[in-house]
Structure formats: C-alpha cells, structure tokens
Specification:
Structural class: mainly alpha
Radius of gyration: 17 Å
Number of helices: 8
Strand content: 5-15%
Shape: globular
Number of strands: 6
Oligomer: single chain
Helix content: 40-55%
Distance between the termini: 51 Å
Order of helices and strands: HHHEEEEHEEHHHH
Length: 180
Amino acid sequence: KFRASVFVTLTKEQIEEKFRESVRLLAEALYLYEECGLSEFLNVISINLRLLICDGEYSLLPKVIENPKFNRAYEKYENNVLLPEKLLENPIMPLPLDEFLEQIVIRRPGGRPITVKKMIRASANKCGGAHVDTEMEEDFFISSGVSKYYFSRIAKYIINMSGMDYDEIVSRLKNSMNAE
C-alpha cells in the first residue's frame, strides 16, 4: 500500500475570501446575539474570533491586513476584572496582535491571569464553538463565563478594521431573512 499526503496552498484571493466570509459571519452573529437575543450565536462569534485573530500562524486577519494594530486597554480593573468598556479604548501606542491577545482581562492572585487569547480560545475550543468539554480547568471555565462581556467590543473593532460595513452586512441578513 502506498499512502501520501497532498497539500494544497490557498491563493491570496482564496484567503481574502475566507477572511471576508469570517467577518460577515462575525457581523451576522453579533447582530443575532445582541439585537435578537439569540445567545447560541455567541459560539459563532467565538469561533470566528479564533479564526480571525487567535489561531496562531493560521489566523486570517494578519494574512490579509499586514501588521494589524489594536488599541490598548485602559487598565481600569474592578475587583481584578478589566471593565469591558475599557478594552480597546486607548489609541496611544497601538499594540500588535500578539500583544493585544496577551492583555489581561482578569487578574487572579495566586492563579494564572485570564488574557484575551485565553478567553477566545476557551469559548471557541471548550464551550461550544468547536466542541464542548464536559470537564475543564478552572481558568477555562472563568474565561468562557466572562467572554460575552468582551466579544462584542472585539468583534466590532475587527469588523471596522476589515473595512467591511456592519450595517450593510446586517441589512443583507435581514433582507435574506424577510425573503424566506
């Protein structure tokens, strides 16, 4: 028996289309989550955030937007928790993607801090984005529990950064829903 692996490399155009598709899904899920109250779409948001910014060398955003920069958080914590409205609020000295992902959302004296990256990966990988773990470490449980307070801000920032129009995407979604 002969076995071989075949590797196919996506073209720049194919990667850009996957990027646009992921941003569209992010915008549609954000609308369905925030405006329609469909909490299950938080899973769609988490998996698309992972695809776009939190998938290491496979992340789509840096493949399409060279050296993306993110506003820093104003580090205002209450009870060791970064206030969600302070994430992405400080435009002075923007951060590269990897530093943005390492910003601390929850300080845990005596425990590992919860970062933006951990929060996205916990929701996407453990809590219903890609699959559901019935047992998980405490920091993943905490991460997934607070993610809903931060994901909207991150999603809106990425949609804006992409140059795509949130209102136009939502309008198309509404029109397609009304057409059926």
